[in-house]
Amino acid sequence: MNHQIKTLKRIILYVLGLFFMSIGISLSIQAGFGVSPVSSLAYASTLTTGLSVGVTMALANVLYIIIQVIISKRMELTEFAGQFIISFLFGFLMDAALSVVQLFPTPETFFTRIVFLISSLFVIAIGLMGYTTAKLPLMPYDALTYAISEKFNIKFGKAKISIDFINICVAGAICVIFIHSLGSIGIGTLIAAYFIGKILGWLLPKYQPTLQQWVFKAEKTSQVMIQEEGNVKL
After folding, report:
1. pLDDT, tens digit, for every residue of 82-104?
2. Where are the domains of the chain?
């Protein structure tokens, strides 16, 4: 029973984390300063094809899965299926979140756009904290970063910078070729690339222990009870 409760809590935290990330990305889209490197390719595809952000986000994640398979030359079926499902779940959440954010007044002044941008950084970081604390399958983009890190024997941080840079370049090229502007790339992209990690580093020590206690409390309580029963028997 405790295991089922823990699993349910992890799933809730995971989905909430993904939803917060999608809300944050939606805020950055509305701000109009450029989106984060992670979502730059998907949003560039939206600007050039007219497909919804959720659809292009799902397709971009499928592309990241394919690249993982090419790099690693192998992938377990369960891992493939998990990432595939997550790709379309996040795509659905992305469209839902964008619909919610678009209910807010459109930021028209420079100040309100800055507020939207700064808010997006914190909301994305909160989402990342929840999503990673749940300890469930990684999003394809993050899994690809790990695959690159292992394949080329480089640190995760450097692999992250490399894949972000490639994503930005490809997204920028798509926009320049098809809509003759940088489109999804802007000063907000650089700000997101630098500050989301900084904000996450500030949030984790302050709030992750509370989330971990909530998620894994049942398991710890069960372990304590088993130890106490063993002590009584002794």
Report:
1. 899 999 999 999 999 999 999 98
2. 2-229
Task: Please tell me the number of Cα atoms within 13 Å of 209 on its side-chain side.
Answer: 3
Looking up tokens 């950055």 gives 28
**pTM value?**
0.85
Instruction: Report how far residue 50's alpha carbon sits from residue 26's, in angstroms, rounded to the nearest whole number.
Output: 16
Determine the Cα–Cα distance for residues 166 and 173; give it in Å rounded to an integer.
11
Cα–Cα distance measured from residue 108 to residue 115, given in angstroms and rounded to the nearest whole number: 11
Give tens-digit pLDDT for 166-187: 999 999 999 999 999 988 899 9
Burial 148-157 (b: 16+ CB within 10 A, else e): bbeeeeeeee
